[in-house]
Amino acid sequence: MSEGPGKKARIIDGKAFATDLRGRISRQVGALRAGHGITPGLAVVLVGEDPASQVYVRSKGKMTREVGMRSFEHRLAADTAEAELLALIARLNDDPAVHGILVQLPLPGHIDEARVINAISPDKDVDGFHILNVGRLATGQKALVPCTPLGCLMLLRDHHASLSGLEAVVVGRSNIVGKPMAQLLLRDNCTVTIAHSRSRDLPAIVRRADILVAAVGRAEMVKGDWIKPGATVIDVGINRIEKPEGGSRLVGDVDFASASQVAGAITPVPGGVGPMTIACLLANTLTACCRAHGLPEPEGLTA
Ligand code: NDP
Questions:
Q1: How much distance in Å is there from the Cα of 171 to the middle of ligand 1?
Q2: CA 215 to ligand 1 centroid distance, Å
Q3: Are 26 and 68 in contact (CB under 8 A)?
Q4: Which of 29, 62, 273, 279 is most exposed by smallest CB count within 10 Å?
Q5: Of the residues 28, 104, 124, 183, which is catalytic?
């Protein structure tokens, strides 16, 4: 499967995978409507006018509609009181047309993010951030799993016949990427190491990895000579850097030019993990909808 040192790594095309995934979701949504008269619904709540968040919310709404689901967008002013946001979440929790609820983060500073996330019904928590879903994932129970690590897992499962017994290193321990990624890899029987900013000799830790997931937020930090020949590299990082000739471009946490000479397979940035996140949000919404109606889990969409 791996191609060894000196040869160019296989590029893991997350964009193509995500397009195919959305196609599969769309077909399952169609079957759900035809067979049961049910249309999955996703509610997205945006508080404030953060430009990046506005872009994310718009594209989430568009892709939700494209796969045939109902999209409910709630835009609240930046000075919305926490109580008002909690009241909206309570209404969405009770609304049978809403199967998934996502509150776009970050929230304005006067709102307690943890309180808001934990107010979402765990069965509608399609971001997988509710403390019950975190606990379910950690204890091997049926959970809704955070979208970015779920997308990484799907790419890894597509590339490897089995992950069992492989050495996996996750660099980064955030609640939204690093920690759930490590749990998912552990669930698939990898031997998992989590590295972070206090880890000693990071290159030596990374060199052990058959599977490397970099979720750090530091442009091109992981160099090619840190990577075990033939390893599979999943680069979650999205960093904007200035180009010498002016303007800017997106790069990952891995130095793609050197790493792709050593790795067996690697995700590019952009076009790797990024497109998987929204596709997995739609997958989670479909899963939540099927569970809410007591229907079988959709195939190939869960961890
Ligand atoms: P966080 O900032 O929450 O976490 C970063 C992690 O990296 C922390 O655990 C931190 O360690 C660790 N870290 C920082 N510096 C170093 C270092 N020098 N050596 C080793 N570890 C280090 O980031 P996120 O997890 O939210 O995101 C990570 C990256 O992924 C970002 O670039 C983000 O933009 C991207 N991202 C991409 C998504 C996508 O859809 N593709 C979705 C979500 C994120 P410590 O805990 O010790 O501080």
A1: 8
A2: 4
A3: yes
A4: 62
A5: 104
